[in-house]
Write a structure and sequence with these properties.
This protein is α+β, with helices and mostly antiparallel strands and 153 residues long. The chain contains three helices and seven strands; from the N terminus they run ββββαβββαα. Strand 2 (22-28) and strand 3 (37-39) form a beta hairpin. The chain is globular. It has helices at 51-63, 123-126, 134-142; strands at residues 7-15, 22-28, 37-39, 42-44, 65-80, 90-104, 115-122. The protein has one domain: Nucleoside Triphosphate Pyrophosphohydrolase. The strands form two sheets. Strands 4-1-6-5 form a four-stranded mixed beta sheet, with helices on both faces. Strands 3-2-7 form a three-stranded antiparallel beta sheet.
């Protein structure tokens, strides 16, 4: 199959862990195309921005924090024969970046968005959250601490 034969969505996420070994997560409200669940700050990359710019924008919208974006730590792809949005085959490409908070305060800034709230969660509790998006496990598999109970074990 050629790249012109399917739709692609590029998304970028931030793995943010503080000095107290807590991970910054968001509650995705769900909707027509996906269920509500815990996820990481991040989302779709707009046409006119880089993945790093998308991380900065998404983290601020969803958590209220400004960040410095570090190196990419994981790339995850998945495919589907079609989606609810389109009958065309679909490929998701998700990039997880390390990020460090540089300012702001906890609280979502987007109005009527897909994030209800953000919360710091102790790393040792993240794997027990349910429901949670699989991008969390993708990120934890690459996190140096290798959190107990995650799919990284």
């Amino acid at each position: 199959m050629q790249f012109t034969d399917y739709d692609t969505r590029l998304a970028a996420y931030a793995l943010i862990v503080d000095d107290a070994d807590r991970m910054l997560l968001t509650w995705y409200v769900g909707g027509q195309h996906a269920r509500a669940c815990w996820t990481m700050p991040g989302g779709g990359v707009e046409y006119d921005e880089s993945p790093q710019q998308a991380v900065v924008r998404e983290v601020f919208e969803e958590t209220g924090y400004t960040v410095d974006v570090g190196a990419p730590i994981a790339v995850h792809t998945s495919t589907e024969p079609h989606t609810r949005r389109s009958r065309r085959p679909y490929k998701a490409v998700r990039v997880v970046f390390a990020a460090t908070i540089t300012g702001g305060s906890l609280g979502t800034t987007e109005l009527n968005g897909t994030t209800a709230y953000a919360q710091w969660v102790p790393l040792d509790q993240v794997a027990s959250l349910s429901p949670r998006a699989d991008i969390i496990d993708v990120a934890l598999a690459k996190h140096p601490a290798r959190v107990p109970g995650s799919s990284a074990d």
